[in-house]
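Lab notebook, design round three. We kept the backbone fixed and only want residue identities now. Task for the bench partner: fill in a sequence for the structure below.
Input structure tokens:
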């Protein structure tokens, strides 16, 4: 014969009230926790950036706009690297610009510096780069080791996106 535990309705409600109070207290603690607030803010910003990046990726530039974008991006990168390379205290700055296709054995990337109005491309092996590196990421090479630079990566990607966004906005205003 099976036995069933029967909870009295008033007892069940009493237990639920206590749990709700505990949950509400926990939620309030999380909301008031400085670390949680910082995490939520950073997560929100990252999601907004991701959505914005995706929207911009889907907008195609005309051939003339593409040339304007490339000139703007190259000028920005020249200026950025001129400043970044003037102070190598934190290591030499590179941007990951490409991954060699059909290269499963060596798994190589191209890392680039912009100096004297020219691109200088170097080969870097995946095993030497930080894990989960992506095209467009900024790395610093210090003491022979590549280190991911999160703030520089965000700054470079945001600025390059802004260049594209400005071109798209210019297109919109020229149609009005």
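Proposed sequence:
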């Amino acid at each position: 014969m099976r036995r069933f535990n029967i909870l009295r309705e008033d007892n069940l409600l009493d237990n639920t009230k206590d749990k709700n109070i505990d949950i509400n207290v926990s939620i309030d603690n999380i909301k008031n926790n400085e670390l949680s607030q910082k995490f939520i803010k950073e997560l929100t910003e990252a999601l907004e950036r991701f959505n914005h990046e995706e929207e911009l990726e889907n907008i195609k530039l005309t051939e003339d706009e593409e040339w304007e974008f490339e000139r703007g991006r190259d000028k920005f990168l020249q200026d950025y690297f001129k400043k970044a390379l003037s102070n190598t205290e934190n290591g030499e700055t590179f941007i990951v610009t490409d991954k060699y296709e059909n290269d499963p054995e060596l798994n190589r990337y191209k890392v680039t510096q912009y100096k004297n109005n020219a691109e200088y491309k170097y080969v870097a092996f995946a095993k030497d780069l930080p894990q989960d590196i992506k095209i467009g990421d900024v790395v610093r090479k210090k003491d022979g080791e590549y280190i991911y630079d999160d703030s520089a990566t965000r700054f470079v990607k945001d600025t390059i996106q802004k260049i594209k966004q400005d071109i798209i906005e210019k297109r919109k205003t020229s149609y009005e």
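Keep this in mind before ordering anything: Confidence is low (pLDDT under 50) at residues 1-13.
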